[in-house]
Amino acid sequence: MPFQPHYTPEPVFSRLGEGFYDVVQSAEFPEHIVRFKNERWAERMGLGELDESAWIQHFGRFEPLDGNLPQPLALRYHGHQFRNYNPNLGDGRGFLFAQLRDPLDQRLLDLATKGSGQTPWSRGADGRLTLKGGFREALATEMLEALGVYTSKTFSLVETGESLTRYDEPSPTRACVLVRLGHSHVRFGSFQRHAYLEHHERLRQLVEFSVEHYMPHLQDEKDLPSAFLREVVMRSADLCASWMAAGFVHGVLNTDNMNICGESFDYGPYRFLPHYDPHFTAAYFDDYGLYAYGRQPVAVFWNLQQLALSLQPLADSADLVKALQFYEDVFAQAMTRHFLHRLGLLEQGHKKDMDLVSATFAFLEASQIEFEQFFFDWYGGHTSEARAKESPMSSKYRGEAFQLWFEMVGEYLPKDAKSLEHAYFQRPRPCGLLIDEIEALWAPVAQEDDWTGFQEKLAAIREKGEALGHVAADARYPGPHAASLAYEPLNAS
Ligand code: AMP
Ligand code: MG
Questions:
Q1: Does any ligand 1 atom lie closer than 6 A to the CB of residue 459?
Q2: Model confidence over 25-73: pLDDT tens digits?
Q3: Which class for 480: exposed (0-12), middle (13-18), buried (19 or more C-beta within 10 A)?
Q4: 355 lines ligand 1 (CB under 6 A)
Q5: Nearest to 155 by CA among 105, 106, 94
Q6: Atom of ligand 1 at shortest range from CA of 77
């Protein structure tokens, strides 16, 4: 019996009915070569015992999972792309394949594809994903998970034997189909679509659906749309702060790329920061730096404003504005929490912590030290002083901005001093994911089909995740009573 007893199918999206999706089929691919299988999350979802042929049957040929959606659904949505409204979006190269409960924390999760073929929303494009695109998304999700960012997971990557032409990659180039495990594929743009089409009943239905399945603690609120917006505002603010602490630039913060659970997903031209630079931009087509590192907090807020506008037919504008006003405070609180966490230090209260975060930025800017190396060297604060002195970057640890920061950090205790004993912290260099390294990892795959560098990198990323306490060392399903590592709903306060 390949499905483990804790596999819990719950295909609810189809209940929304007409107007929310189109029933579609997967493309038929000439080949199916499994390039990545997320053993840990497969195990957690009760799909860890599928053998290679069953894996391909479900995640390469998309035969339905037991008790799950009988046919894939391409979701309908609109969205603002670089601030221009596009009413022709929707799942153009992907679909919702299955829904299931996380047996550990009871979240409703989706298995959804990228690169599975054309749909009514492909707009003449091929519906495919390049292998390099899938390779990059797998690395991004693993690294973000290791850093404690709330992210979708790459569940499966199957090379399909097709060859694609892309103007922004050496072509022809190889293709793959990626399966993503995510906490909802309901996007800001899903609401924008119904508002734009003036389908107000569907808009209401989607709000109720979202609360029922993703925010059940709000179910008794009198003004559901405003309570829903407030929740999305808080979750998105928290997510954005976690990107800032991770030094992550998503690259394409369009409203169709933001989901209602504050989970980061859809990784195209993302980049990690080499060193602190608010203008650092990920996407080569982002001509004005709209989604640059330092602009992400404003971009997310702008997107939330569009979500609020789309909810106007259902709620009083003043109440929606009140919900939006949560953003600033939640973002500020989340910034200190995520940066203190990144430094491996115990929090001491928002105001004091904010001063430390400001001093951290001042030093990062003045020194232009490698972003990742700094957080690696000083994890746990002064406890790491001897280690930081041995760092290849130790010459940066001097000067006024450093002294100020060093004195301030002396007042903080490590969150978990034991984690510094982890093998990860015995290395001279941290495990990062800058663009040059991604290209260097890709070259042997492209040239000789050699995946060893990729495999080794994944192992290194997971070791980092273990050291930082975000990835469990033991991949086995720990049973229904184990605490979740991944997700804690925010409290409205
Ligand atoms: P993305 O940039 O991946 O968020 O995609 C934006 C929109 O373009 C979505 O509606 C996608 O489904 C669609 N899209 C992107 N690439 C393709 C493709 N190769 N074929 C069909 N649709 C695509
Ligand atoms: Mg997208």
A1: no
A2: 999 999 999 999 999 999 999 999 999 999 999 999 999 999 999 999 9
A3: exposed
A4: no
A5: 94
A6: 10
